[in-house]
Inverse folding.
């Protein structure tokens, strides 16, 4: 039986130390009908030349060089150039098991699914495996769009496109939002409606290389990634979508909105918690207006409720105390 073409899109930026391992893991796939698009997003360290060298080794690799515009713009360029019936995405510092795409294509062929997901693990810079962010299912499972959305709202699901193989037709009129972080979550919510659900496989075939200095893993405590702003915006979008399409999960969505704001408030530097920061003020207003939901929501833990109530009442003092506590604990 003829193998449908899979396009694997890899955004690349200043990643000399990891790129070769990543690309080799994709080239080694047992599903051989691949095209691999390396999108060099304005690299300045020689990564662009390495992309060209890798393309000379394997005819399935195509390279595109563009001015720096961020991961979403690189992915979007790849989507526009893709010829495959299915699209996969791999981050350039990660790597995958050789059977990953074959396993997902088998599910697509047998079950007619439009989105199939494998499970993932995380490897630290010290080479040690980290705790699972998402617990893999014990066996393959299909979650319809509402059920999958619920797992995301409860922080039990995986919104990353890197762990998924997706029907390319779902991207026909859709792209990743550029200039924003947490972009996978936003786009996936749009695709879920049309896709009707996600097939999830238990095998941890995608390996995330967890490295300091990425968008949400800053070494300097005074750094504040805009991802913490974007996750709040996406929480509002998720609540709107839930209300319109899946009202049975409104309490889960309410929990998500509060949790994302708690994450924001626990990361914003105290120095930025001031009257000039309109977004910060709006987050605090939201928490104060939703005290009843905070107290009664069954999906919040006792610790989360306590922090939300304290931060709503006295955000700067509580945040300052939290920062001192984290320093004492060495975090």
């Amino acid at each position: 039986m003829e193998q449908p073409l899979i396009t694997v899109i890899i955004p690349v930026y200043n990643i000399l130390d990891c790129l070769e391992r990543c690309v080799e893991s994709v080239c080694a796939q047992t599903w051989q009908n691949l095209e691999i698009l390396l999108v060099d997003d304005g690299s300045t360290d020689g990564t662009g030349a390495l992309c060209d060298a890798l393309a000379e080794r394997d005819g399935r690799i195509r390279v595109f060089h563009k001015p720096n515009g961020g991961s979403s713009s690189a992915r979007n360029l790849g989507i526009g150039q893709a010829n495959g019936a299915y699209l996969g995405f791999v981050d350039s510092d990660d790597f995958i098991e050789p059977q990953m795409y074959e396993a997902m294509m088998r599910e697509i062929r047998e079950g007619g699914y439009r989105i199939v997901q494998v499970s993932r693990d995380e490897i630290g810079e010290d080479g040690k495996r980290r705790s699972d962010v998402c617990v893999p299912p014990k066996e393959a499972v299909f979650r319809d769009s509402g059920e999958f959305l619920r797992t995301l709202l409860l922080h039990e699901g995986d919104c990353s496109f890197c762990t998924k193989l997706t029907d390319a037709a779902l991207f026909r009129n859709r792209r990743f939002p550029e200039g924003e972080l947490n972009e996978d979550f936003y786009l996936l919510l749009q695709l879920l409606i049309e896709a009707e659900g996600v097939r999830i496989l238990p095998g941890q075939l995608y390996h995330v290389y967890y490295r300091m200095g990425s968008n949400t893993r800053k070494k300097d405590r005074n750094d504040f990634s805009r991802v913490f702003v974007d996750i709040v915006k996406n929480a509002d979008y998720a609540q709107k979508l839930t209300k319109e399409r899946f009202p049975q999960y409104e309490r889960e969505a309410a929990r998500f909105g509060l949790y994302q704001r708690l994450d924001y408030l626990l990361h914003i530097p105290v120095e930025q918690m001031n009257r000039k920061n309109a977004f910060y003020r709006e987050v605090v207003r939201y928490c104060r207006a939703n005290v009843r939901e905070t107290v009664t929501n069954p999906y919040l833990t006792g610790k989360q409720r306590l922090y939300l109530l304290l931060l709503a009442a006295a955000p700067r003092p509580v945040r300052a105390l939290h920062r001192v506590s984290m320093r004492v604990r060495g975090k």
